[in-house]
């Protein structure tokens, strides 16, 4: 169910992007000349600081600023300090596009760290491709995309959604009710889930969407009770404030996790704290990172974050992915030797590894990270008990192998003859 409002917004930003593409290309070439002589390296940070997505994105900005502060404190990048220029996408896709144009054309940043929703990423993607700039994107997403101008440091579907479905089928039941926000990620995620269930012997008994930011969840709760009178799995891809109303309504309706286990793919520790742990205890989430990972790298990360922002703060998967993508960019720039040379930085990024809070990651030739998959159950304190983890990092597959149109397709930006989509 695509909303007409979202379609109108996409038409608006697409036409604006085309009309300004030649100006932006000229600005990019001037930026390369100017950036080398500056005493600082300017980077863009583009997230929602206001609107329905601010509940999730504000904390991602904190994580990116922590990484920048740490790097600056240890000498910066190539002897220069990083200077972040922060813009508010305001949970509005045309605003994301306008702010991306500003960061590239006016501020002449060398790269941008940003976006959360796939709608915001889709809004800025043509701008980065037309101007040959780089976006680092920290959030798990629906795949079905592999841009030369984006590095995806969150999970591809085979590193989150698909393993979650497999685990649920083995442990929680075969009847699934799908709930999501009305935009690209939940719709595509549910297309993948339905195809996967059809192959694996599961059943989709319902599928409902809410406009992003909507709190009108009563009818969805009623439909879940009707479709699953004896209980079953709820797969949740709601984003933003809608989750507050949804989980409160679930509990108030008596749909408890013992009979109605809910698996979320966009709710982490920060969202649980905002919603209230009492509404989520016993439910599940699939991510690559949880704050409770027992490793020295993770303990150091959590301690440094809380030392900077407060001991009551929690960290989640997109925050960790945002934090490590700044370090991966740093490593790529230092390998390339010039932050303004997009071609050199992009090539140098491939194969970069990092001992991250989530574990060892590697930036693969398809611009995605190899990542360990984990499933957690919400505890009373709002953190996760990790109940499942893969033995080693999983290679990313941006083109989905359950969807007929993309089955047997891959992405390899190290080989010009393969590129963003090729038949394997």
If you had to describe this structure to a student in words, what would you say it looks like?
- The protein has 424 residues and is an alpha/beta fold.
- The protein contains 13 helices and 17 strands.
- The strands form four sheets. Strands 7-6-8-9-10-14-15 form a seven-stranded mixed beta sheet, with helices on both faces. Strands 2-1-3-4-5 form a five-stranded parallel beta sheet, with helices on both faces. A three-stranded antiparallel beta sheet has the order 11-12-13, with helices on one face.
- A hairpin with a 6-residue loop joins strand 16 and strand 17.
- Helix 1 (4-19) runs parallel beside helix 4.
- The radius of gyration is 21 Å and the shape is globular.
- The two termini are 32 Å apart.
